Amino acid sequence: MAGGGLLITRAGGTEFEAKITPILIISGIMAATGGLMFGYDIGVSGGVTSMGPFLQKFFPTVYKRTKEKCLDSNYCKYDNQGLQLFTSSLYLAGLTATFFASYTTRKLGRMLISGCFFIIGVVLNAAAQNLAMLIIGRILLGCGVGFANQAVPLYLSEIAPTRIRGGLNILFQLNITIGILFASLVNYGTAKISGGRGWRLTLGLAGFPAVLLTLGALFVVETPNSLIERGYLEEGKEVLRKIRGTDNIEPEFLELVEASRVAKEVKHPFRNLLQRKNRPPLIISVALQLFQQFTGLKAIMFYAPVIFSTLELGSETILYLTVIPGAVNIFSTLVSIYCVDKLGRRILLLVAGVQMLVFQIIIAVIIGIKVTDHSDDLSLGWGIFVVIMICMYVSAFAWSWGPLGWLIPSETFPLETRSAGQSVSVCVNLLCTFIMAQAFLSMLCHFKYRIFLFFSGWIFVMSLFVFFFVPETKNVPIEEMAERVWKQHWLWKRLMVDE
To answer: Domain Major facilitator superfamily (MFS) profile spans what residues (predicted)?
Structure first.
């Protein structure tokens, strides 16, 4: 430490001085509110799709099925493609929007005001009179999600000093978990509103994080990397001085200028992603996004009320129990913020893989024994035990795969392919999220309790992938990933040659 600053040790013996400045913290918090809207959208879907008045208006066949006692299977109450499209359309739209976001983050800056998409989408959803209006609103929300998920992780990684990059980046995931909990609390409260209009208030309250995101985007500083990349060298140097809290920024500034020079020589960043030297971060980013979705966590968060309804726990109990995993999600993400830059990325991913695997299997065994196609034998006691197991599973995801699935891709691509690489990463994430949201209720109907064993298999595979192929990136400056990470790995070093 020197003069209260945080010294970041470099490979060549040089040190970059950086303090934890107020402008750094404020910009990080404001930018991370992009995750608040994303989390609210994740949490709100399952709540409204379990509300009788919502189903009665938009999905009457599903509503009728939930009231029948002589179904072929309790697991199939909510198996409806239209109902699944309500949830999944948001992610399909986000998938498309992220490629436009790649261009704008390169040309216009890292932080974009995607709040207008969110606000218009919220208005359409809350005022929806038919299914088409409802889906269009979700699509506009998806456009906002695509832009926010592209910009925010990059922004946080680029403004952060190296030694707190992991913790600052995870603010995005923390806001996602807060959004999920907020949605669960809103679902619980609005379900009690008389007149059957609680679902409109639930969808309308998404306007709060949307406005917060819009205002937050107006107050954040642009990243030095982005300003320098667009030719604003003096502005970039001044912002770097402000966020680092020191005048001793020349060495870091010169490295950013050199990285920008190299980046400008790349005319086709998406094509350059396929070069041998760029394949390690590309492969790992795609794999992490794929595995993150096939842990089953988001499917459980989307449809938690529906799952608990399948277990015949009662409508009010369902929404009450849904709040608990949301609270666990936030607490465990705070644990990740504290640990990620101390313990590293790999150890969190591996330990969490074991924890998730164990609790997924326990959940499958309990539901397989206690819940049959036509019975509602799962007592409140057993139901609470299942919720506890789900909380343990959610906890493992929240301090590992949830935040690190966003952190690692955002910190491993070189500047010349960073926006393109983040676009591919977000695209894969949203594509897999769309597939899971669109297919989960049908899978639940056909797999029954074995759906949890299906996810367990993926968790086993992804843990093996991390053990063999994911290197540690803790405390490594972004611009030195090639030399200090990829060229030191037993497999990826074979690809690190110029073409």
So the answer is: 27-474
H/E run at residue 8 = strand 6-9
CB burial of 207-226 (b: ≥16 within 10 Å; e: otherwise) equals bebbebbbebbeebbbbbbb
User: Using CA atoms, how far apart are residues 198 and 210, in angstroms rounded to an integer?
Assistant: 20
Q: Do the Cβ atoms of 460 and 146 come closer than 8 Å?
A: no
Q: Which residue range is the domain that position 267 belongs to?
A: 20-494
Distance CA 318, CA 383 (A): 10
Establish if 397 belongs to a structural domain.
yes
Note whether residue 317 is domain-resident: yes
pLDDT digit string, tens, across residues 119-165? 899 999 999 999 899 999 999 998 888 888 878 888 888 888 888 88
Whether the CB-CB separation of 156 and 281 falls below 8 Å is answered with no
Tell me if 157 is assigned to some domain. Answer: yes
- pTM, two decimals, is 0.78
Q: Which residues lie below 8 Å from residue 360, measured CB to CB, with a gap of 6+?
A: 296, 393, 452, 453, 455, 456, 459
Contact yes or no for 241/227 (Cβ under 8 A): no
pLDDT digits (tens, 9 = 90+) for 260-296: 887 777 777 788 888 888 899 999 999 999 999 899 8
Torsions phi, psi for 287 (to 5 deg): -65, -45
Place of tokens 């089953």: 296
Secondary element (H or E) of residue 17: strand 15-18
CB 353 within 8 A of CB 482: no
For the record, the structure tokens of 82 come out as 């239209």
CA atoms within 13 A on the CB side of 142: 27
| Residue 132's CATH number | 1.20.1250.20
**Domain assignment present for 138:** yes
* Residue 16 host element (H or E): strand 15-18
Calculate the CA dihedral of residues 380, 382, 383, 385 and round it to 10 degrees: 130
Give the chain's domain count. 1
